[in-house]
Amino acid sequence: MLSVTFLVTGGICVVLACMVISLILRSRRDVHLPPGPTPLPILGNSLVLVPTDKLAVYKRLRAEFGDIVCLTFGTTKCVIFSGYDLIREVFVKKGDATTNRPPQSFFIKSIQKGYGVGGSSGNLWKEHRTFILNFLRKSFRRERLEGLIEHEVTHYIKRIHDANEKPMELRRIIGTSLTNVTLTLGMSKRFEHDDARLIQLLKAIDDIMLYSGFSEALCFFPALKYLPGDMFHAQSMLDDKEDIFKWLKELIDERPGGVPEHEDDIEDFIDAFMLEAKSQEGDTTYTEHQLLHVLFEFFVAGVETSGATIRWAVMFMLHNKDVQDKLADEIISNLGYERTPTMADHPHLNYCQAFISEVQRCGNVAPLSGPHSASKDFYVNDYLIPKGATLLMNLTSALKDPKYFDDPEAFRPERFLDSEGTYVVQNSLIPFSIGRRICLGKDLAKIELFLFITSMVQNFEFLPEDPNTLPEILGCDGISHGPVTFKFIAKRRRPVKM
Ligand code: HEM
């Protein structure tokens, strides 16, 4: 009897001791976590993100707590890193622990479902990222990509001419042109600007980009998606994704022919994907499901980001007439009015390169990059970053880092030129992110930005709608940070030839 009581008491003591030790360990662990605002019971730090101006929130958090800030949402820690050097340290040097995507994120779990390349991690991500990069490299080599963008630019410039120097807005026109670039590259298909099906696709992409800003809360409190009225737009995003997939499937079904026989027969991404699927016997990740997710990502990741940068370029030209004049001088003295810019002109147009870099720095279209996740515990500046934490890079802080960009709030393309006027690459300019997840479409985007922007300046002078009032330099608060809609006048530099 005595021994039973002894055993039970002993057992309880052991359990209590374990609980106390675990509490001590947990609190010691918490001591090593980076600083941040005190989390409230249940709500954690979710109220911190309530104001709509997220960029101001991250700036304030950095001012108060420093370059590494830890927030608590539900059971998840979210760590924000600021400043170019620290971002480099975490996402490049510690890349083996910081490259995965957070599986709990609403966008990754419910929209991307762990497929595609931006939404996947581990082997699926590695295999498909390498495959897509190879495909893009081969397209560059064949100069195919450049040719198809030049073709699209011609249609685009015509659309701006069609506005007849009346106040116009760019969002729809540039969105259509960039979607056509993606469609041609992906499936050898393009649409006219007023095609109803294309307008429907653009609307769905726009909505997803806008609503994704609201979905942050769903990452940490998934139950919120069941609130009445679709307050966090979860259902709308799922419906939009369904529409885009249906649209893509229809286009794939309409494609003539079957699987190409050889690499030389590859016309577009779908051809390359199908050929790879055929060459892999047995279990393959080259499925229709994966293909649809990759194509979906090309639209979501590629159209709005490049489009927003081009819209920022117009905004900064309106605000800096002297810069616009220098751009025009350089383009027209090198190419004249007739010859359309090509990538062969790129090395000669130093001021244009500097302008585009400065637009990317000040436009800051992906202020928090994409979310990453810690695949194991690791330490930065003696702080513990626990396995499973969501990791955000504050790209704004790097693009405006005074250590690398003197007077960082000023718009000054000259900061990218040496004393001879030659463009100088600056490694600290990281609008495409940094590390193993660096934007997969970076080289494609650079060609798009160069060809679209130089052709626009060659053809038009950009003026404000009202000569006495410039549009406010104000960004949207979605997944990407484009300028809020503004109107301008595109005045022809020479008479139109119809
Ligand atoms: C100016 C234009 C663009 C900017 C500023 C931009 C920026 C970014 C950023 C910041 C990321 C997140 C990287 C990370 O998670 O650390 C990203 C990822 C990605 N971007 Fe871009 N992007 C642009 C254009 C494009 C284009 C044209 C494509 C078309 C294919 C594209 C495809 C992707 C993909 C697929 C990913 C996911 C990569 C991965 O997770 O491995 N992007 N981009």
TrEMBL record:
This is Cytochrome P450 2D10. Keywords: Heme, Iron, Membrane, Metal-binding, Monooxygenase, Oxidoreductase, Transmembrane, Transmembrane helix. SUPFAM superfamilies: Cytochrome P450. It comes from the Eukaryota. The keyword Heme applies. InterPro entries: Cyt_P450, Cyt_P450_CS, Cyt_P450_E_grp-I, Cyt_P450_sf, Cytochrome_P450_fam2. GO terms for biological process: organic acid metabolic process; xenobiotic metabolic process.
